[in-house]
Amino acid sequence: MTIAAKFEIEYLQYLDAEGKEVRKDLPAFAKDLDHMVELYKLMLSTRVFDAKSIALQRTGKLGTYASCLGHEAAHVGIGSAMKPEDVYAPSYREYGAQLYRGVQPREVYMYWGGDERGNDYQKEPARHDFAWSVPIATQCLHAAGSALAFKIRGEKRVAVCTIGDGGSSKGDFYGAINIAGAQNLPLVAVIVNNQWAISVPRKIQSGAPTLAQKGIAAGLFCIQVDGNDIIAVRKAMEDALDRARNGEGGSVLELVTYRLGDHTTADDARRYRGKEEVDEAWAKEPMKRLRNWLVKKKVWDDAKEEAWKAECDEWMDNEVNAYLETRTQPVSAMFDYTFAELPADLEKQRDHVLSLDQKAH
Amino acid sequence: MAQITLIEAVTQALAYEMAHDESVVVLGEDVGVNGGVFRATQGLQEKFGELRVLDTPLDETTIAGVTVGLAVQGMKPVAEAQFEGFIYPMMEQIACHAARMRNRTRGRLTVPAVWRAPWGGGIRAPEHHSEANEHLFTNIPGLRVVLPSSPARAYGLLLAAIRDPDPVMFFEPKRIYRQYKEEVPDDGEALPLDVCFVLRDGSDVTIVTWGAQVKESLEAADALAAEGISAEVIDVATLTPLDFDTIAESVAKTGRCVIVHEAPKTAGFGAEIAARLAEECMYDLLAPVERVTGPDTHIPLFRLEMKYLPSVELVVDAAKRTLAAS
Hints:
- Chain A: Its cofactor is thiamine diphosphate.
- The radius of gyration of chain A is 21 Å and the shape is globular.
- Chain A has helices spanning 28-31, 33-58, 72-81, 95-100, 105-112, 138-153, 171-183, 202-205, 230-245, 275-283, 286-296, 302-324, 333-336, 344-360; strands at 10-12, 87-89, 159-164, 187-193, 196-197, 200-201, 221-226, 251-256.
- Chain A is of the alpha/beta class.
- Helices cover 37% and strands 19% of the residues of chain B.
- Chain B is built from twelve helices and 14 strands.
């Protein structure tokens, strides 16, 4: 038998569900315990933020909201590995990565609270990142196009996109990794496999044993990672970003995690999955293992946890207040950003809408 | 000065802008060594290199989405859809992202991109190679839809489209790609994207059209003139945002209007113009507005396609009906 091609997919994990090291060769960043505490703190603030968002929605102060519960290691791992000059193209629940890059909670609230200004991220580097992408996987091609722009201009920058396990079924994802392979683009495509695309389980998305291996067909480096282990996520991301930055090609990462919450606040996951499965997933969630590890290293304890939670509460309360105090945009805002300059024909429509609005007051 | 065809004017505009603006890149299927299946990008890869004239994988979705990414990063991509009939997979990226990026980010991110596509029927091409579907794009906010109908307008409008800070669909009537030559100075002068062009002055009836039907409409005006009927011919050129004032002024003068396009009749862009005439020019009209369009069928394979496309005779007949009515 002649073999035309052969491949294997590495699985990367450093910490098990209890926070025990399963391998000894910890990456350099993990030896900087202050930094690891910073990562833990951001994971915790992401969780506090998420709970606050859901409470806002339940009390009628937010529209539909997509929770990130259980994705904290995956998202913070992605955001913390990227350099400021890189570009991020998320889907719609990667708040941990985005908070790291300067998206403010008030902006998230504004977007899900029905105000486009939530997409107008004020702080760098988020300001040059893409906004949330609702049509599934379409953002993968925006990242590929960004990566192509970097290549054309000879810039040492990397474009990162994230999609879910469901998103990895879409042509846009395949198209993005395909052109990244063909043109050797600095693209890192991260599949955050949280096992559920609303009600459809991972096994219905693909017969492939890993989603990471989809990148093999595109000629990219592929790896499957314990997405609840931030050390593994961060290491895989750093390696992928380095390769891309050095012109050694793009990567597909599959971060295996679990969506502990509903798809969005409009969803009820009890309709399609059992309590037992969710309980099992809770046993593997990302906060506990990092906390255990940090406690064992004597750099974290209950008092610090409570103190940081209180700080997060205060931070989020400030953000919520800023959001709730934001006045609705004037009616003309629906016209103002359609084109760089309002065309004469559209100006007439705007004036008509404004005159109706004035009558109503 | 050399006389050039419409498609050569497209090439000339692309070459001019690529030479003067480093951020302009061309991408699509077969646009590189082959110079495009119609040769619109002939010689560009030799001049500007494989990265700025990029042959993409054969996937329209990829072309469209990568174009959005390039544009957001400050490039000015000119993407080619090889035929209008293959543009459908691009529509999600165009409608959901290109056309609304500025709006949904309150101006933070923008998409200064052009999508070019050989458009329309009449060249005895295979199935899916002859569509006219501009109306599917004119209903998308945030998008400009442009159809040139002469070498000079192809040059000037394409330059304007590339320089425009917002996304532009640039549909090239392939039936008249090589219909005739005219002098087009390579002076980098763009034409405005916010006006209709009055190609022929007249006093009895206004013929409003765009794309390849400009040819039939001008010939119809000649035929009508031979019978003593004076027809004004307007090339809409930029369908959206529409310069309705030019059409309204003409109809105020003639009192009659015939709209000519090859796309299917129902909800074609002619319906929009007719509706605007009814809304805003009712009392100027001396006769019902006439539409000469493709029927609400798929354009037939090529043995019957010329029966589908509006003909000079049909335009002349419609114009005469407007005169008979008043």
